[in-house]
Structures are given as structure tokens and as C-alpha cells.
Amino acid sequence: MKPLIAVVDYEMGNLHSVAKALECAGARVQVTSSPRAMRKADGIVLPGVGAFGEAVKRLRAQKLVAPILEALGKGTPFLGICLGLQLLFERSEESAGVRGLGVFAGDVERFPRGALKVPHMGWNIIERGPAGRTEILKGVSANSYFYFVHSYYPAPEDRGIIATRTDYGRAFCSSIAQGRVYASQFHPEKSGAAGQRLLRNFVQEVSAC
Fold first, then answer.
1. Which of these is catalytic: 94, 109, 189, 205?
2. Is 82 an annotated catalytic residue?
């Protein structure tokens, strides 16, 4: 049977494209804002587009923080996408005074104003970091291109969790991996064959659990 993956709906994400891409990768998908449904799923995907502070507010208002943290705590395979990566950290320069989920130590920083256009938008190369041997990147060739749309990026205190880096005026963390947690600043659902391979790997990881 295909694994059931819950895509968290807190009204801040391109949920349809994420769901369709996961279905194409071999999963059954439930787009949901129900904590109960999330607890019953085999895997969790937290997408997101928008402001850090508003996202935290909505997650808390819909009582979605607890099931996310519970899933992470018990080793449920988890994929964060774009804002879904940033929310795993403690703070963001975008929303002063707002606490993130605090799963990983570190801040979310803004690209400096200068010669390069912000937001960083379009295709860019990923290069492997210390955690780059994660199964989620298996079969994704070195220097693959992925699609980005963002003005902020995470700066983990533990550099060992960095799965990929990308250069945009400076090298920044473009994805992290630790255990069964993987999260990317880029959008795999918009990244062609490389992104679909990553999603297939995630679905296979969910199936294996």
C-alpha cells in the first residue's frame, strides 16, 4: 500500500502543487489542518510561502505545533519546504520577537541589500554539505539545479546538519538533514527531474518506516 503523507495546511503554501508532486512520487496525500490526521500519517510535509511571524501565529492558532513536534520526536519522516525549513529554527530577522519551533538552534537571516537582487528567485545549483549523504539526496547528481524563491535563509548553529549549500552572493544553507528530518529552502515540487527524484526518495523513506 502507498504510504500516507500529511501535507500541513495552515493557509500559507502552494499546497496543490506539493500534493500533486508527492502523488506523482508514489504517495497517498492528505492536505490537512487536523492534528488527529497528522498523528495518523506515515510522513509529514510542512510547506510554506510568506512571512515567518504570520506562519508561527497560524500554526499556533490551529494547534498544529504540538503534532509537528510529536512527529519529529518519534521519528516520523518529515519534509519541510521553503518557509517550512525556516520555521524549524529559533528566530527570524523577518519577525523580531517571534519564536520559531526551535527544533534546531540558529537564526533565519536576510540576504544583505546590495548588488544582488532580493528575493533570490530562479534556478540555482546545490552543493553537498556535511549532511549531504542523506538518503533523500540519493541519485540527485552533484551540482543539480533547483528552484528558489526567498529573501531569507537559515544559519544553523550546528553546521553538521547542512545537507546542501548554494551560492547567491554568499554561500548559504539551502537544505538540512538530521535523522528522518529533511528540509529545503528550494522547492522540489517546482524543480523538474531533480526535485521529483528527491520527493521519490522521501516517499521511499516513509515507506521504509
1. 189
2. yes
